[in-house]
Amino acid sequence: MVENAQDISGSATRRHWYFAGFVAASVIVSWKVLTALVLFSLHEESSSHILLIPLISIYLLYVERKRISKFLRTGAIRHASLILAGALLFFLFIVGGFFADQASYLPVTISLLVVAWIGAFALFYGPSALLAAAFPLFFLLLMIPLPQSVLARSIYLLQSGSTDIAYFLFRIVGVPVFRQGFFLTVPGVTIEVATECSGIRSSVALFITCLLAAHLFLRTPWKQLLFVLLAFPLALIKNGIRIVTLTLLSIYVDPSFLTGSLHHKGGFAFFLLALAILAPVLLFLEKSERLQTPSIPVVPAKTEGGLSSS
Question: Is residue 305 part of a domain?
Answer without folding.
Answer: no
